[in-house]
Structure formats: C-alpha cells, structure tokens
Amino acid sequence: MSALKVGIAGLGTVAQGVVQTLQRNANLITGRAAGDIRVTAVASRSAKPDVDLHGARFSTDIMSLVGAADVDVVVELLGGEQPALDLCRAALAAGQHVVTANKALIAHHGVELHELATQNKVSIAYEAAVAGAIPVLGAIGRGLAGNQIEWLAGIINGTSNFILSAMAGEPSGSAKQKNSLSFAEALDQAQELGYAEADPTFDVEGIDAAHKLAILTSLAFGAALNFPAVFTEGISEVTVEDIEYAAQLGYVIKHLGIARQTANGIEARVHPALVPAKNLLAQVDGVMNAVMVGADGAGPTLYYGAGAGMQPTASAVVADLVDIALQQVRQPVAAAPMAYLGIEDIVTSYYLRVPVHDRSGVFARLTTALSELGISIEAAVQREHTRSAAKTPAGEAETVPIVLLTQDVTERTMQAALTQLQALPEVAGRIRCIRVEALEA
Ligand code: HSE
Hints:
By secondary structure, the protein is α/β, with parallel strands linked by helices. The protein folds into three domains: 4-129, Rossmann fold (3-Layer(aba) Sandwich), CATH 3.40.50; 136-308, Dihydrodipicolinate Reductase, domain 2 (2-Layer Sandwich), CATH 3.30.360.10; 347-436, Alpha-Beta Plaits (2-Layer Sandwich), CATH 3.30.70. It is 32% helix and 25% strand. The protein has helices at residues 13-24, 26-33, 84-93, 103-119, 136-143, 158-167, 183-192, 201-204, 207-221, 240-248, 310-325, 362-372, 411-422, and strands spanning 4-9, 37-43, 57-59, 73-76, 97-100, 124-125, 149-155, 231-232, 251-262, 265-276, 288-295, 299-306, 347-357, 377-382, 390-391, 398-406, 409-410, 432-436. It starts with a strand and ends in a 5-residue tail after the last strand. The relative contact order is 0.13. The structure holds L-homoserine. L-homoserine binds next to α6.
C-alpha cells in the first residue's frame, strides 16, 4: 500500500482540523482509503510554532508545495482569490491533485481548473466548498448518480440562516432558549462562531450562497460553472414584520439557493423566500445548513448538517482525500454551457406587503388592480393596528399594511405590477415583495 502524501497550504482552523482528523482517525482512514494519508508538508505565510504538525515539514513559501516530490495532493486552505488561484493552477499543471474548500475560487475559476485537471490527468475536489460537513456533492455525484436531478433548494449560508432564525426568535444552535437578537448581534455571534466570511457582506448579500449554488447547479445538471448567471439577493431588507406576517400565513422566511431544470433553461437563484412552515427546510435553524434535492427516481432527499467550522469542514476535506486515494473523484459529467433563465422568466408566487392609506375601499382597489394585471390572490391579511401603523406626515390618515400572497406568475409580470401598484394614490410607502417557494416537485 503506497501512502497518499498531502501538502496543505494554509494553517488556519480548517487546516489544523485536517491535520488533527488525519491523526485522530488514522487507522479508520487508512482502511477506508486502502492506504495511509499522510500530511508531509504545510506551507503558510505565517508560522504557528504552537501547532503540532506531527512531523510534517513547514515552509512560509506556499509555492514550495508545487511539484514537490513529497506532495501528491495540494490542499488549498488559504481562501481568497490569490495566491490560491496561482497555487491551484501550478499544482494541477505539475500533475498534483488539488483539494480546496474555496467556493469563490471554484465558482469563478472552476471551468479553467477542471480543464487543467483533465489535461494533466489529475483530480480537483471541493466537497468542503459547499455546505461544510454535508457530503452533498458526493450525494449528487455518486449517491444519486442514477437519477436525473430536477431541482434543488438549500439553506447554504449559515450566517444568514442564523440571523433570520434570531430575528424569528428561534433557538439558535445549541442554545435552548428563545433569543431575540438584533441583526447586528446575530452577525457578531456568527462571526464569533467562525461562520461569517472575512467580509460579512458576502453572507448577508447572498454572494457566498451564490458561489455555492453555482457549484451545486453545475454538478446537478452537468452544466458548466456559470456564477454570473446566478441571480443573487441577500437578507438585508428582510424585516421582523415580514417574518411575523409570514408566520401568520403559515410560512417561515429562509434564505434559499434554488436551482431547477426547466424546459426553457436552468434556473439558479439565491434570495429570501417564504417556505411552508411544515417543510423540513423551514425547520433548519441557527447556523445549520440543509440541501433538498429533487430527483426523478429517488424523489426528494434532504441533507442536513454544519455548514462551516473547523472539524465539520475538515471532515469534508478528508473525504475528498479518501476519494482521491481511491481514485473516485467525480468530475462534473459532460459539463457543457447551458442556457440559464433570467430572473424575469421564473414563475413563482409572491408575498406582498403594501402600506396603504387606511381608507374604505382600498383593499378592493388593490386586488382589482392586481386582477386586471392577471395576478390572482391566494391569501390576504389586513390589520387595522400593527406596529407599522403610523400617521402620515399630513396627520390625517393612518397607514396600514395589506399583506397578500399571490398565485404563480412570472417575475416579469410581478415587477410590472409592482411598478403600477407603487404609483396608486392609495399606496403610502414602498411595497415589500418576497418570493414564495412551495418546494414541491
Ligand atoms: N460564511 C459561510 C456561512 C461559511 O456562513 O455559511 C461557510 O461557507
């Protein structure tokens, strides 16, 4: 049995987790990989003399891993674009396998890196880049290999889920008490837990989730990676008021990544959505991640777990190393450029919260206007006294929200309707619009 020799770039928490995991479960891993997996080299710009490298050589020169005789696989755990990209390019060109947890790198440069891997007859694997510990790429690429994937929907940014859960007053993670954190407090906690990105706008504006969805979409549908085609909207405009109205209507607001194969092209979109409270995804709280996959034979399957953190992410990196040892890495099959739908062509239903002047007949005026635009109402809530009720600047009439759920309609129609509704004299402020996802086949 020959050993697989691993060189790790980076010495942050995940890198330390990989070194620890390979030590802690050495015998188990050797059995599963049909040979030893040994960390022979670690390279990081800053030395950490307190970290036990279990005999691996250390260098502050990251590129020293490239082409090294004692490195079969370069594990890139630097994060960011450079020097991670140059390192991966050089390692693949030198005939070394690459394992990375870097979702931004794969989302932006995955096509090129896959081509380099193919040319050099080596593998590139990135299970840790999507949903941390959850082996969802393995599940789609291997476990569901006999299926046509029809759709997937996931909570794939723990920080956003933590913030939305906290705003909804749900218990967070292991804390068994109700909390009512503000947006900023929840973000601080996610940062302390090591979940948030270095730039947390990547989390709250949906970019991190879009990186992951681009990867999932590519693997699920055999489409070439296409990050720019992913529609991206974050959670920064979701309010506690919307969360409360959604609850009254039987929904929970989640930040979802959704991909769907349609007759006209692939849908790939990241945005807040109302999810039926009884759906399993609605029950995923705190920093946890979950991905539901709809497949033609298997039907819906659900994958749940920690989306980040030292040991969970290390778990996925080590799984990739075992796959490489067994020569079982799945590359996206026949990854081909495919048409993606623009957001204006998607069909879904919508939650609308319309602040109106509190006069008689205003509800009928609104629903008539929607009906004339071809939009049917599924449900409505009208409150006389809510936290948003307020005097207008003139002081003569109160504003109250009318909350509506529509039936399915194209986004194009809905956007045109919003422009028209917004101009009605009865409408007293900005209309809030959130997509509703039934999450059915
Ligand atoms: N910032 C990410 C999250 C970390 O919150 O899920 C894992 O990619």
